[in-house]
Amino acid sequence: MTTLIWIAAGLLLVGIYLSWTAGRLDRLHARIDAARAALDAQLLRRASIAQELATAGVFDPAASMVLYQAAHAARLAEDEQREVAESELSQALRVVFAESAQVRAVRDAPGGQDSAAELVAAVRRVPMARRFHNDAVRAARAVRRHRTVRWFRLAGHAPFPLAFEMDDEPPAALVDFAAGAEGPGH
């Protein structure tokens, strides 16, 4: 009789552990979904601001075309091509804003101070959003690698989480503009 009680208690503990692990994995997947939505919003915001600036007439035609095409491609990219398109937008931003004169041109245009500030904010938020997403992916992958999760198929039919890898280095001139705008006296 006591053996049956011990077996039942052991099975109950295993069941509680499996349920807790499945719940944790479900919460991690929800966190990934939320982080991906936030990343998508930040990427869309960055591309939209870049498109607006490209059509504002602030840059020379070649710079405007490069920036517009990269931003347009990033906005319309399918999931399979999104990382590449976003990396190309980052590269285009670095090319267009290679010199602080370009930032000054945007800032000095009508409504340009707000546009420059919006672009700086968007360029700063993309790496943070990507980091949050990739941290959530890393945590879910760590749980999914456990044998217990695989043996009991606790992940269900959820796809294996993938990190979002892209070039998100900000243009140096924008970083300098942001540092100057946040400095003393501003």
How would you explain this protein's 3D organization?
By secondary structure, the protein is mostly helical. The chain has one domain (33-164). Helix content is 76%, strand content 0%. It has seven helices and no strands. Helix 4 crosses helix 7. The model has no long low-confidence stretch (mean pLDDT 92).
The percent range for strand residues is under 5%
Q: How much helical structure, as a percent, in the residues?
A: over 70%
Compute the separation of the termini in Å. Answer: 78 Å
- The average pLDDT value, as a whole number, equals 92
Multimeric status of the protein: single chain
The structural domain count equals 1
Following the backbone from N to C, one meets helices and strands in this order, namely HHHHHHH
Category from helices, strands and their pairing? mainly alpha
Radius of gyration: 23 Å
Strand runs, count: 0
Protein name: Secreted protein
InterPro entries: LemA-like_dom_sf (IPR023353)
